[in-house]
Amino acid sequence: MGRSAPVAGLHSGARLVVPVLGAAAGCGRSTVALLAAAGLARLAPTVVLDCAPTALSPWRRWPLTGGTGLASVPADRSLHTGQVRAAASSCLDGLVQVLTDRRPWSQPPLALPSAPSAWPALAGMGGWRVSVADTALTVADDLGDAGVRSRTARWMLLERAVPVICAPTSREGLEAAAVAIAAAESAGLPLQRCVLVLVGVAGGMPRQCRAVATMLAPRVGAVVRVPHCPAWRAHALRTDRLSRRFEAAGSQLTDTLITTAERSWGPLRAPAGTAATPEDPSHDDLYVPAGGPADRPAAQ
């Protein structure tokens, strides 16, 4: 996850949205979101969108640097690109940008937009071409009776979206993944461009669960396993403490996301030898709100 190795970036017109959803609670959604963003940030300007209410978000407990937070981008005012970029915090030595609520925990909850389309729009205002959304949604529970009207469905149906469903490698986790995938199939959602990420737990994957994972693989676009790595959080996200298997899983996840997107929309990668396009700090467009507070994050 270091920054030194040269990699081919995405071409200038490439856009990608990665909604990270859960098959169950405590499935490693935020870890997967950060792991995906760390890899994608080497290919194009990338931001993590923390869509969870403050009480449910782990991001304020992680070592973030700078950023004025989501409360500084009010929905009822015109915004410049520079304002949106200033709201973002950074982590992993500046590799990953994060839009989250930076206010003290004692403040009242921030009014977050319910429309999934508002979040990639905010990322676009900031000049990021790739957005990874930590949605805090549990697929089967959210789909429920709402079906395609649910937030899960609207995230999965976004233009240029490659959804990720996370599930722990436990019996309960794999069962929840099977239920989530069945619910998405019933709703007619595009599972062919969905990536199932199996997040390792202490003790590894029980033998009987491997058969379930094998059964689920043909029903989604791809499956990626992320091994258990207690050092990821125990050492404050320090990349020099990560296992090689964990780093390799991050690279595989990045490649899988791009490959899955390219199957649907054609090439996203620039010609070999082309580096990721850096952000232009002088680019400062003005965006005028069109739809009011429901369309962008806003402070209450």
Could you characterize the architecture of this molecule?
This protein is an alpha/beta fold. Helix content is 30%, strand content 16%. It is built from nine helices and ten strands. The strands form two sheets. Strands 4-5-2-6-1-7-8-9 form an eight-stranded mixed β-sheet, with helices on both faces. A two-stranded antiparallel ribbon has the order 3-10. Helix 1 packs across helix 9 and helix 6 packs parallel to helix 7. The longest helix is centred in the C-terminal third of the chain and has 22 residues.
Largest sheet: 8 strands, mixed
Structural class: alpha/beta
Helix % is 25-40%
- Broad shape: globular
Strand order within the widest sheet? 4-5-2-6-1-7-8-9
The ordered string of helix (H) and strand (E) elements is EHEEHEEHEHHEHEHEHHE
In short:
The chain has 300 residues and is α/β, with parallel strands linked by helices. It has 9 helices and 10 strands. It has an 8-stranded mixed beta sheet, sandwiched between helices. The chain has a two-stranded antiparallel sheet with strand order 3-10.
Per-chain topology:
Elements: E1 16-22, H1 29-40, E2 46-50, E3 79-80, H2 81-87, E4 89-91, E5 96-99, H3 118-125, E6 130-138, H4 139-143, H5 151-156, E7 164-168, H6 171-186, E8 195-199, H7 207-216, E9 222-226, H8 231-234, H9 244-265, E10 286-287
Parallel strand pairs: 1-6, 1-7, 2-5, 2-6, 7-8, 8-9
Antiparallel strand pairs: 3-10, 4-5
Helix pairs in contact: 1-9, 6-7
